[in-house]
Design a protein that fits this description.
By secondary structure, this protein is α/β, with parallel strands linked by helices. It is built from three helices and five strands, in the order βαβαβαββ.
Length: about 120
């Protein structure tokens, strides 16, 4: 299965990429340092070609309430749009406790909370 990990250079992302490769998946490791920006959408369409799953393990550069919500709203909207354009591809997200009860949940993405 082709799986795109956005935020692949981060703490969670590195471990996830490694585990998915151990399980034999074709993994594309994506982040701004590899030319993929989830907030602007740069590079997303290209890496999602042929992907069945895109996993969002990005993190906001700021944890201030407004900034963090803005980051995840913009990035989730871009990822959902790219997922829809990619056809048979599903978005999975890993997010912390701060985002559990806020308006991000209205974006209808699959939500995995590893903070509890
Ligand atoms: N670490 C934990 O124990 C833990 C526990 C519970 C939940 N979480 C959640 O899991 C997520 C990842 O956490 P983490 O600790 O792995 O974060 P991290 O180490 O700070 O890594 C963040 C990743 O996001 C990428 N990134 C940042 N802005 C981006 C953008 N605009 N477009 C694409 N990629 C971007 C970074 O790479 P570049 O700088 O190259 O773009 C990096 O690969 C967060 O949402 C966090 O709340 C983490």
């Amino acid at each position: 299965m082709k799986i795109v990990v956005v935020g692949a250079s981060g703490r969670l992302g590195k471990r996830l990429v490694s585990k998915l490769r151990e399980h034999g998946h074709e993994v594309v490791a994506a982040s701004r340092s590899s030319g993929v920006n989830a907030v602007t959408g740069e590079g997303l369409a290209e890496v999602l070609v042929g992907a069945q799953v895109v996993v969002d393990v990005t993190s906001s550069p700021s944890f201030e309430d407004t900034a963090v919500l803005e980051f995840f709203k913009k990035s989730t909207q871009k990822l959902l749009a790219a997922e829809a354009d990619a056809g048979d591809c599903k978005l999975k997200c890993v997010k912390g406790q701060k985002l559990r009860s806020n308006e991000l949940l209205n974006l209808r993405h699959s939500y995995y909370d590893f903070s509890t």
